[in-house]
Amino acid sequence: MKRRVKTANRIMLAAEALFAEQGFTETTMRQITTAADVNLAAVNYHFRSKQGLVNAVCEKLMEPLCTEIEVALADRMLDSTKITLDESLEILMRALLNVSQVNTHSLSVFMRLLELAYMKNQEELREFFIVEYLPRLKLLLECVRADSAPMEDDEFFWRLHFLLGSIVFTLSNYHMLLTFKDKGLEDKAEIDCILHRMLPVLVAGLQARGEKTYFSRI
Predict the structure, then answer these.
(1) Which of 41, 50, 31 is nearest to 7 (CA)?
(2) Long-range contacts of 213-216 (CB under 8 A, 24+ apart)
(3) Whether 53 contacts 12, CB under 8 Å
(4) How many C-alpha atoms does 43 have within 13 Å on its Cβ side?
(5) Domain architecture of the chain: domains with CATH
(6) Does the structure show a pLDDT above 90 at 212?
(7) What string of DSSP letters covers 176-190?
(8) pLDDT tens digits for 20-52?
(9) d(CA 123, CA 119)
(10) What pTM does this model have?
């Protein structure tokens, strides 16, 4: 039994490293089996398919993220005061920071997973996200909505995806983004600094005037 667990873990670690470096679609099963030093039968035994392996990696990262968010919200709700948008997004940022500490590849893989879920041929992965994890994120989304600017549901939907897109792009490419910086600028590349800098931008985007909320004409 222990040997089987070790084999499965070795496959997942090899896959994560390749997914982080190359992406999901570009990584082949042959590359995974070579990196993990196993045969294809071992991958099929533990995960059934490449998609099953992708789902397993997703579960490995989403479970601690959702648990961190649920625990933080439960603790905060012991205080009866309203949860602000800053607090809600900070809870999300702290959960992402914890994901980054799983291993050296975890945050990059997680961001690539979110990118992958938007591709038109990834219905199975999207369904996995929606069925397994959307209910666990519902309370966080309700808190975000409650302190965002008044807006209709369709506009809130798009703003959420603008927020998600900003997070995914920045965290997927932050090493590359550093190469664009002026060499004389202070270098604070740590993930926690990046997340801290993103927070006011995301809050401002959600609290900006709604599309159908017009300026006063008095």
Answers:
(1) 41
(2) 213/149, 213/150, 213/151
(3) yes
(4) 24
(5) 1-48 (1.10.10.60), 49-207 (1.10.357.10)
(6) no
(7) HHHTTS-TTS-----
(8) 888 888 899 999 999 999 999 999 999 999 989
(9) 8
(10) 0.84
